[in-house]
Specification:
With about 260 residues, the protein is mainly α. It is about 45% helix and about 5% strand. It has a three-stranded antiparallel beta sheet.
């Protein structure tokens, strides 16, 4: 719907519907002022900070359930890729093949949420997923093409719907507390902190700006460390999914970056 906000159920929200009505009646001259223009989304539904990170046992259940989801390989692999790379959903959903360098194992995000370009170092597992997706994509320029129109990326809610289905009553993750696509990214950050990777390396891998004086004076991009960390993370996920009784931890990087 033009100008409307589409919710998870595919219908415009009540506020968007009301705004649409006033736009139309104003355009036809029935009213001179649109009172909804001064109403912000936060006033209707205030934003709340989320801190959901999946526990290892929950993450393993998700990975196993994902393999049996009827969404099919592209969306299944897309969610795995988000988990492995710690990218935001749209950074993967809108990614084009020209951004992927298979020789250097890098994914270029031209513009992140902070407004800057960002290089994601690809683990062996992430690279394998991308190689599979390239075969599935055919002639599409997108890593995750739309199911019906290869010239477009997959829909904005497609990846969300996979997780929603897995958590719906009677399905594999029904008893697990609610989580979203973005929570996969937070899960990675949480587990990497627990594994004693340096916070600045994690934040840089997430495409975050390091704040304060540290952010002003520390211009290091930690390329080698980020590549090592994301490979460690991918191996950790493999071990977790395989049901390993021993999940590796790191105790060699506990200092803060000066």
């Amino acid at each position: 719907m033009e100008g409307g906000k589409i919710g998870s159920g595919g219908a415009p929200s009540g506020s968007a519907h009301l705004k649409g009505i006033f736009r139309r009646v104003k355009k036809r001259g029935f009213v001179k002022h649109d009172p909804t223009m001064s109403i912000t989304a936060e006033e209707i539904a205030p934003k709340s900070e989320r801190d959901r990170a999946l526990e290892p046992v929950e993450l393993r259940r998700f990975l196993l359930a994902l393999k049996n989801d009827p969404a099919g390989p592209p969306l299944q692999l897309g969610l795995q890729l988000i988990l492995l790379t710690l990218c935001r959903k749209d950074e993967i959903r809108l990614a084009r093949w020209e951004q992927v360098n298979f020789e250097t194992a890098e994914l270029l995000i031209p513009r992140t949420k902070s407004g800057k370009a960002h290089v994601v170092y690809l683990s062996r597992q992430a690279l394998h997923i991308l190689e599979t997706l390239r075969t599935l994509a055919g002639d599409s320029p997108y890593v995750l093409p739309h199911r019906d129109r290869a010239t477009l990326p997959t829909g904005h809610m497609s990846l969300n719907h996979v997780i929603q289905r897995l958590q719906s009553p009677g399905n594999a993750l029904h008893e697990i507390p609610h989580f979203t696509v973005h929570d996969l990214r937070r899960t990675g950050s949480t587990r990497l902190h627990e594994a004693n990777f340096l916070p600045d390396i994690i934040e840089t891998a997430l495409g975050h700006r390091v704040g304060g004086v540290r952010g002003v004076y520390n211009r290091a991009r930690y390329g080698n460390q980020r590549r090592e960390m994301l490979q460690w993370w991918a191996d950790w996920i493999d071990e977790l999914e395989a049901g390993s009784n021993i999940v590796r931890c790191r105790f060699d990087q506990v200092r803060q970056v000066a």
